[in-house]
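User: Can you predict the 3D structure for this chain?
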Amino acid sequence: MNLSKQQKHPQHTGRVLLGVDTPGPHEVSLLEMEGKKKLIWDKGMDIEFMTRVRGKAQQKAKELLTQAMEEATQLRQEAQEKGTAQGLAAGQKQLEEHLNNLSQSIAQATQDIQEQAEHIWAARKDDFIQLIQMS
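Assistant: Here is the predicted structure, written as structure tokens:
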């Protein structure tokens, strides 16, 4: 029963037995056999890791800064357009008020001139009649 379980689920230990001709079996890991060393976390790896992390963080910061600058430029442009539109609307309103005041002033001046003309005509009408009769 034990043998059938091992055949269904063989365990791979990553070890190779060498040296049958040596006094005892010599065991070598696959990494050692391929010439690779076991990874040991040392100060150099710590520096390399931090350098890579710092580089990625700087790149991300540059991307975020670029994106923020683009958004700020867009917001400035929108604000300028909105400010320009508001300024134009305020200018248009002032122009309309000024034209309205000007037209009222002209209407008042025209009415004053008309009244003055009627007053002068009324005052001089008799003089003109006498002048015409004398001539």
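The longest strand covers residues 15-18. The beta strands are 15-18, 26-29.
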